[in-house]
Write a structure and sequence with these properties.
heterodimer; A: mainly alpha; Arc Repressor Mutant, subunit A; 2 domains; 71% helix; B: 216 residues; mainly alpha; Tetracycline Repressor, domain 2; 76% helix; disordered N terminus
């Protein structure tokens, strides 16, 4: 119990819980804000533990079967603290989803915002997406499959997330002389191919293999913007990169 | 009991068993309609039998006379609407002047039907895949078989490598996006773009754009 005083208000048992949870869920990648007062530090970590716990428990039991009590137990956090941060289970789950989407978006934006020709940037963003999802299979299943069972608010949130990602494609609008009046939903049409294929693979439990879709989905993402020939050039580059990666493993 | 027997005798004069049958079918249809409304509002997981019987203004016992549980009712609602969509698509092609025209007509008719019944559209396109992702495969087969039958397999040599999952997937995501965004009434305006995405893997970008343009 001597380490208890060393760590302020956190007891060693729940601290071990944080580390274990963090490793399970790759939460160390999450952006961390300023850590001011010790109380704030503890508060943030309690919230983060609850967020990590709701994802872990949902991955194990499914969203509907998960109770607030399950989340508290997995997080090592008291009921009163839970309701300081969240209204209910749904609120907690959606907060977790937001944190994870922010993390995914940051990874994708990093890869996309490179000084390269636009098709290569799109491929970079796609690779980052597929790698992130494949690297976090439990989280991916929770965010894509379990998310659908949460309720109407989650479906709206899901839709907003889709548009957050397809909005990145808008840069390509300048490149495509073709039919801006005809394809008014071009970004959704492009991104829809990725979403539909990824969702299908996730649904059948094929999450680890998502990066293998890189060449085909590069082509499908670019096709509505730059046409077949140019999209095929980027697909060939994707194939080469994938071959290199596969043979390196 | 007396009155019921009396009215039964009365209707016997005209058509003996049909009215009772129509009554049961109308009741079943009312339950399916209620299911669609409740599911579109709350999603399948949150919908309760109480919600459905309340929406349909029937008793719980009546619900269980028609369906064993919520899921069976949901499946029946989905099946009935998919059947309607399929019939709509087939019917729309009968007056078409050419194959591309038939595809455009079918897409236009399906979009009109989805716009006219947004709750059922939501049930089939948003809730059914959540409940059972495999169902997308069945719906896709229906749509793609129809397309192939019209366009002709092997045309332009593009069929072999064409990925129908992409065509249907793009259309599905775009339509579901409009439904979730409360834009069901705008669905008919998507006809050119849905024509484009459905034809894209099969005829190539240029031809798909040309077809979409004629749909405009």
């Amino acid at each position: 119990m001597s380490s208890s005083s060393q760590q302020g208000q956190a007891d060693p048992d729940s601290l071990a819980g944080i580390i274990e949870v963090d490793q399970d869920l790759h939460l160390w990648k999450l952006p961390r804000g300023r850590h001011g007062l010790p109380r704030e530090l503890v508060a943030r970590s309690q919230r983060e533990r609850l967020i990590a716990a709701v994802v872990r428990v949902t991955a194990e039991k499914g969203y509907r079967a998960t109770s607030v009590a399950d989340i508290l137990k997995a997080a090592g956090v008291g009921r009163e603290s839970f309701y300081r941060y969240f209204e209910n289970k749904e609120d907690c789950f959606l907060a977790a989803n937001d944190v994870l989407i922010d993390d995914l978006e940051a990874a994708v934006a990093d890869a996309y915002d490179q000084p390269r020709p636009w098709p290569a940037r799109v491929r970079g963003g796609l690779v980052a997406t597929l790698d992130w999802l494949a690297g976090n299979p439990d989280i991916t299943r929770v965010m894509m499959i379990e998310m659908g069972t949460v309720g109407p608010v989650a479906i709206l949130r899901f839709r907003q997330t889709f548009h957050r990602f397809t909005a990145m494609l808008e840069d390509g609008e300048q490149l495509s002389e073709e039919a801006p009046d005809l394809l008014t939903n071009r970004a959704s049409i492009a991104g829809g191919a990725v979403f539909a294929r990824v969702y299908e693979e996730v649904a059948i439990g094929n999450i680890e293999n998502l990066p293998q879709l890189q060449p085909q989905l590069t082509f499908e993402l670019l096709l509505p913007y730059i046409g077949e020939e140019a999209a095929a050039i980027e697909r060939d580059a994707a194939n080469e990169e994938l071959d290199r990666r596969n043979s390196a493993q | 009991m007396e009155r019921e027997a009396g009215s039964a005798r009365q209707s016997n004069v005209l058509t003996p068993s049909v009215p009772r049958d129509i009554g049961a079918r109308a009741q079943r249809q009312r339950i399916l309609d209620a299911m669609a409304i409740v599911v579109a509002e709350k999603t399948f997981s949150a919908a309760t039998i109480a919600d459905i019987v309340g929406q349909a203004s029937i008793s719980r016992a009546t619900f269980y006379k028609h369906f064993a549980d919520k899921r069976e009712c949901f499946d029946a609602a989905a099946k009935s609407f998919v059947g309607e969509l399929s019939d709509t698509a087939i019917g729309a092609q009968s007056s078409a002047e050419s194959r591309p025209d038939a595809i455009r007509q079918a897409i236009a008719a399906v979009l009109e039907q989805l716009a006219a019944k947004p709750s059922y559209a939501n049930l089939v396109l948003i809730n059914a895949p959540i409940l059972e992702p495999g169902i997308v495969t069945d719906h896709r087969e229906l749509a793609v078989e129809g397309l192939k039958a019209q366009w002709g397999a092997g045309k332009g040599g593009k069929w072999a490598g064409a990925d129908a999952r992409i065509a249907f997937g793009r259309a599905h995501v775009l339509i579901a996006d409009y439904l979730a965004g409360d834009r069901a009434d705008e669905l008919p305006e998507l006809q050119p773009e849905i024509s484009y995405v459905m034809l894209l893997p099969f005829v190539g970008n240029e031809e798909a754009l040309a077809q979409a343009r004629s749909a405009q």
